[in-house]
Amino acid sequence: MTAGNDLHAELEEALFRYQYAIAQADAAKALLEREVESVAQMHRVKDDHTTEYNGKLGVVDAMLQCPNDEDVQVWGAYMACCMTEAATGLSLGTLSRNLKKGALERHSTRIKPLLSDSNKEDRVNFCRRF
Fold this sequence. Notes:
Layout lengths: L1 H48 L2 E2 L2 E2 L1 H7 L3 H15 L8 H10 L2 E3 L4 E3 L3 H12 L2
Antiparallel strand pairs: 1-2, 3-4
Helix pairs in contact: 1-3
């Protein structure tokens, strides 16, 4: 009888772990759906209330066109995400080390890698073709 009880206890424990994993997956799915909706809302605000000039957003005009505070906040969050160091996809430690070494140079708009001599020559040759 104890072998049956032990097997029953193991099965109940396995069932509990399975149910817990399903609950975790459902929570992760709900979080992902909320994040997707947030990004979609940011893009809707951007598309509805902005104008592009030569492929660049007119930020001042975009902010003037936003009709309410909620849209202004969503737009600000969107621009903050696009223009921060986090947008590069690098960790803060990696950025700091490369900035100190001189491999990256801080710019007013975003962090860009420095051009190497061979890359400069390639870009000049590319531009001369036009």
